[in-house]
Amino acid sequence: MITGTHHPSLALPALPRLPSFTIHPLGVLVQLLTGGLRAFVEGARRSIGAVLHTYLFGTFDASHPAAMIPFTAGSAVSSLNRLVTTTATALTVAVFLIACVRSVTSHSLDASHTLQVVVPRLLVAVLLMHASLPLIQLAINLNNALALAFVGHGAVDPASLPWAAPMSGPALRTAGDNLFLLLFTAVMVVGLAILVLAYVVRYTLLAVLCVAAPLAALLHVLPETSGYARQWLRLFSVTLFMQAVQLLVLRVAVALAFDRHQSLVAVIYALATLYLMLKVPGALNVAAHWETSATGAGKRVGRAARRLVALETGGTAG
Q1: Count of H-run helices and E-run strands, the chain
Q2: Which of 25, 120, 229, 312 has its CA 20 to 30 A from that of 17?
């Protein structure tokens, strides 16, 4: 009969003790977010820096950014401008015929409809059509000169920009696991992306305005279409000179910067600078409409005064 005695050779070996650990889901999520935000900022820094250097500090042909070729010297802009100039020159005959018919059939006392006013405008329009590109390049040169005056002599360079220090590699490593600070830095990157998009749109819009310049000169001839010519001039002025004003804002921001390290104050200061720069086009657009509003009010007052004089004269004669 076999008894239940324990044999020493059949004993099981002792299992090693496994280390115990606890997973904190919130901590893992924070680590993933901070790592992703650092990678996002580092990747955006290299891309945004190159694009801003091409578009922000001057208006030149973007196809050769290092050569600083004049904006209107690009083959696409110049060839399309010549095509539109030829078309607008042919349309001057139609505009002249419209003015002649109106002078015969219209009984209006408005002097702007007479041939004595329309014909000189037509001649000036033809001159502006064929000289549109040189005149536009003169305006662009003025903008570039203002931009150089605001950022020249090393006062503003890529290393001194308000967002350069918070986006630098050492600053991001110093931020470590500060999720709050990295979130503000990511918002700053989004603001920079919007600024880059605005400058790409500005460059494209300037090209379109340069091509359409001959048509704008022709639209200024007739009173009914002169408003569209003024809109072209207003849009061109705001689109072109927004760069010089934004660089002036940037120069002031660089001069007043008091914290050039990775801190919440530095990031918020960079965000404030970006906000002001993005508000410049809207402010210039509002300022450009002041003259139009004042002119419109003056014309309305003039028409009311003429009607009042006509009524009083008619009443006295009657």
Answers
A1: 8, 0
A2: 25
Its pTM stands at 0.77
pLDDT tier, 318 (very low <50, low <70, confident <90, very high otherwise) = very low
Domain boundaries, the chain: 37-47+69-85+131-294
Pairs from 49-57 (Cβ < 8 Å, separation ≥ 24): 49/158, 51/196, 51/199, 51/200, 52/158, 52/192, 52/195, 52/196, 52/199, 53/158, 55/196, 55/199, 55/200, 55/202, 55/203, 56/195, 56/199, 56/243, 56/246, 56/247, 57/147, 57/151, 57/247
C-beta of residue 59 within 8 angstroms of C-beta of residue 144: yes
Question: CA distances (Å), 72 to each of 61, 81, 140, 149, 206, in order?
Answer: 8, 9, 9, 22, 10
| 136: region left, alpha or beta (phi > 0 left; psi from -120 to 50 alpha) | alpha
Q: For the segment 101-145, what is each residue's pLDDT rounded down to a tens digit?
A: 877 776 655 556 677 778 888 999 999 999 999 999 999 999 999
As a whole number of angstroms, the distance between CA 230 and CA 236 comes to: 10
Give the C-alpha distances (Å, rounded to integers) separating 16 from 8, 13, 19, 53, 250.
Answer: 20, 9, 10, 61, 65
Count the neighbouring beta carbons within 10 Å of the beta carbon of residue 65: 15
What is the C-alpha separation between 246 and 280, in angstroms, rounded?
A: 7
In 3-state terms, what secondary structure has residue 268? helix
The answer to whether 160 and 11 are in contact (CB under 8 A) is: no
Question: pLDDT of 30-87, one tens digit each?
Answer: 566 666 667 777 777 777 877 888 888 889 988 877 778 899 988 789 999 999 999 9
d(CA 99, CA 113): 7
194-233, pLDDT tens digit by residue? 999 999 999 999 999 999 999 999 998 888 888 899 999 9
